[in-house]
Design brief:
This protein has helices at 16-27, 32-52, 58-82, 90-98, 100-122, 127-157. It starts with 15 loop residues before the first helix and ends with a helix. 77% of the residues lie in helices and 0% in strands.
Length: 158
Amino acid sequence: MSRSTDPSRPSQDVTRGEKRQLALASATLGPWRPAAAVGAIGGGVSLAVSAVGGDFGFGVVAGACSVALMLFFLVGGAGAVTGRGPRSDRRIRRWAAEHPWRVALVPGGMLLVTDLVMRQVLTSEGFFGSLWDGLWRGALVAGVVGVVGSVAASRRAG
């Protein structure tokens, strides 16, 4: 591993760009296949509940997709900060455990982008309404993933 991406270096020597790369690399180590299954099940249940209630349309589909995306990024991000994904680089996992809030920003940001695009494609909702929906959902995912990572780190340390 090159010096620029070595997570074992002290954090004061790591540049801002390297921190972003490490956070992204850490987030990719999450359990994304199980997260996709959980997201698909949650989105399907949301769609079924809405359909049973008599509602159907692109807005309902967008709501179900939003639930699916939120669960996907929540489970994958939480697995990334707790080390529950596929095993690969222990150094990156250790960095993720030490910096759960930096890693939590990745799934939160990805949810923001994908939810915004999905709502713009499937609904007639305005851009700023879609942006607001994506922002609060992304903040919720980042907050939950960050708390899960912080709690897991404190349990490992104590």
